[in-house]
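Reminder: ligand-aware prediction takes two inputs, not one.
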Amino acid sequence: MKRRTIVLAVIFIAVSIAFAGWVSAQTKLAPNGAAVWDFIKKADYAKKWKMWPDTKPMHRGVDPHGALLNVYVNDAALKGIAAKKGKLPVESLVIIDNFNAQKKLEFIGIMYKIKGYNPKDGDWFWAQYTPDGKVVEEGKIDECIRCHAAQKSNDYVYSSKLK
Ligand code: HEC
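Here is what comes back for the chain with heme C:
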């Protein structure tokens, strides 16, 4: 191979890697349960993401969530919680790991905010998964919205006051 070809190839690879990194740093996801699972799995959220500020690992849960819970947030949600503006920003992603009393992971729930997705209910996309990533339910899930609507003035979230 010519030296120039090698140089060009190296530049091309470097740019591709930088671009892929940039793309993966953007959360922007479609309202699609499988795509969101793919993203959070690759992100290795349970190891790499922060927990919702001031929530404890394996805190006691309430029905229909698990007996023990971990709540994780992406950077957008984390910034929104700190900003105390009463709402979380678009692209906030919150994950709840639901464990039974024996600390076995039973299911995973998510809320992901997408601009214009469901304005009357806070623009949240909801999904529930089995621990191996099978989508149990997804979308504008009535059951989730009905209960979380008790927190409508707090952008549908329970874990802390947003103002
Ligand atoms: C009967 C009420 C109720 C229902 C139904 C419900 N939740 Fe929740 N959810 C809660 C409560 C209470 C919390 C706070 C739990 C804690 O202490 O960490 C919570 C927390 C969460 C959180 C963490 C963010 C927050 O609100 O603090 C997510 C994500 C979540 N729920 C997703 C879901 C999904 C997805 C569904 C439907 C499949 C659902 N929930 C159904 C009551 C409910």
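The mean pLDDT is 93. Residues 30-154 form a domain with the Chalcone isomerase fold (CATH 3.50.70). We will return to this case in the review session.
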